[in-house]
Specification:
With 310 residues, the chain is an alpha/beta fold. 50% of the residues lie in helices and 13% in strands. It folds into two domains: 33 residues; 252 residues, 3-Layer(aba) Sandwich (Rossmann fold). The structure holds nicotinamide-adenine-dinucleotide. It holds the Pfam family adh_short.
C-alpha cells in the first residue's frame, strides 16, 4: 500500500497532469490555426510499405505517398491488382515495387520482409491496411473465414511490425499506421468477427504507442485510423441510412495527411468522436435501442461484399 508521502506525490503529479491537459488542448487549438502544409513532415526518399496496396484505399495511398516522393512498396495477395498499382504509380513518375504475399502466412511475411530489406531498403513507414470481411451472422460464419479475418485484419500487424520495427528503433525514426475501422470502436450487426478484429487493431495501436513511449522510442510514431463505410467495393451492399458514406480518395488523403502530421488517432468523419463519448456514457439498453432506431441492426442485410472480379 502507498504511504502518505507517496499519495501526496501522486496528487501533485495528477495536478501537473491537469495543467498538461490544458497545455495540450491549447496546443491542439493553436495547431488547427496553422495550415497543414506548414506542419507536414517530409517523406521524400523514405520507404513506405502498404499492405493491401492492390486495390481500394491501399492503392490510392500508394499513389499519394509516391507523389510526395516516397519509394513505395505494395504487398498484396492479388498479384494483378498489385501490378496495376505499380503501373499507376510509375505512370505518374513515382517509384513502386510490388510483392505478392499472403498475409495469412506468417512465414511468408517474414521472408518477404527480408527480401524488401535486401532489394529496396529499410522501411520508414509501415501502413497495415489490408483487410477482409465475411459479413455473416456468427453461426453462419465458417471457422476458416473467422481465422482468415483475424489473420489478415490483426495478426498480420504483429508480424509486419515485428519485421520492421527493429530497423526503425535502431535509426530512431519511423511511423506505423494501423487501418482499423469505426467497427473497431462500435458494434455492427453481422460483423462479429470483423468488429472483434478491428477492436483488436485499435488495441494494438494504443498499446504499441504506449510501449514505444515507455521504452523511450519517441522518434517512432503511430497512427490508428477509424473510418465509417467507404465506397471501395469491400462492403458492397452495406446500407447506411444515417451515417455518412466516405469517398476512397478523401479517406486515403486524410490517412496520408494524418501520418505526415503525426496525428495519433484519426476518426472519419471527425464527428465520430461525439458518438464515442455517447458510447461511454449512455446505458447499454439505450445504445441497443439507438442501434435499432438508426438501423445499424439492418445495415448488413443486403451485403454482398467484394466480388472476385472486382
Ligand atoms: N471499405 C470500407 O467501408 C472500410 C471502412 C473502414 C475501414 N476499412 C478498412 O480499410 C482497409 C482497406 O479496405 P478497402 O476498402 O480499401 O478494401 P479493398 O478490398 O479494396 O482492399 C483490401 C486489400 O487487401 C488485400 N488483401 C486481402 N486479404 C489479403 C491477404 N491475405 N494477403 C494480402 N493482401 C490481402 C486485398 O487483395 C485488397 O487489395 C481494410 O483494412 C478495411 O477493413 C474499410
Amino acid at each position: 500500500m502507498a504511504d502518505g508521502k507517496e499519495i501526496g506525490l501522486m496528487i501533485l503529479r495528477l495536478l501537473v497532469g491537469l495543467l498538461y491537459t490544458v497545455y495540450c488542448m491549447l496546443e491542439a487549438l493553436v495547431l488547427t490555426l496553422i495550415p497543414r502544409r506548414y506542419r507536414r513532415k517530409n517523406i521524400k526518399g523514405n520507404i513506405a510499405l502498404v499492405t493491401g496496396g492492390g486495390s481500394g484505399i491501399g492503392r490510392l495511398m500508394c499513389r499519394q505517398l509516391a507523389a510526395k516522393g516516397a519509394i513505395v512498396v505494395t504487398w498484396d495477395v492479388n498479384e494483378a491488382g498489385n501490378l496495376e498499382t505499380v503501373r499507376q504509380v510509375v505512370e505518374k513518375g513515382g517509384q513502386c515495387r510490388a510483392y505478392t504475399v499472403d498475409l495469412c502466412n506468417r512465414h511468408a511475411i517474414y521472408s518477404t520482409a527480408t527480401r524488401v530489406k535486401e532489394e529496396v531498403g529499410k522501411v520508414d513507414i509501415l501502413i497495415n491496411n489490408a483487410g477482409v470481411v465475411t459479413g455473416k451472422n456468427l453461426l453462419d460464419c465458417p471457422d476458416e473465414s473467422i481465422i482468415r479475418t483475424f489473420d489478415v485484419n490483426i495478426l498480420s500487424h504483429f508480424w509486419t511490425t515485428k519485421a520492421f520495427l527493429g530497423d526503425m528503433i535502431s535509426r530512431g525514426k519511423g511511423h506505423i499506421v494501423t487501418i482499423a475501422s469505426a467497427a473497431g470502436k462500435f458494434p455492427c450487426n453481422r460483423l462479429v468477427d470483423y468488429c472483434s478484429s478491428k477492436y483488436a487493431a485499435v488495441g494494438f495501436d494504443d498499446t504499441l504507442r504506449l510501449e514505444l513511449m515507455a521504452e523511450g522510442h519517441t522518434g517512432i510514431k503511430t497512427t490508428v485510423v477509424c473510418p465509417v463505410f467507404i465506397t471501395t467495393g469491400m462492403f458492397e451492399g452495406f446500407q447506411s441510412k444515417y451515417f455518412p458514406i466516405l469517398k476512397p480518395e478523401y479517406v486515403a488523403e486524410e490517412v496520408v495527411d494524418a501520418m505526415l502530421l503525426n496525428t495519433p488517432v484519426l476518426m472519419l468523419p471527425y464527428t465520430l468522436k461525439i458518438n464515442l463519448l455517447l458510447n461511454l456514457i449512455l446505458p447499454q439498453k439505450v445504445l441497443l435501442y439507438l442501434s435499432n432506431v438508426l438501423d445499424i441492426t439492418h445495415s448488413m442485410d443486403n451485403f454482398v461484399g467484394r466480388r472476385k472480379n472486382q
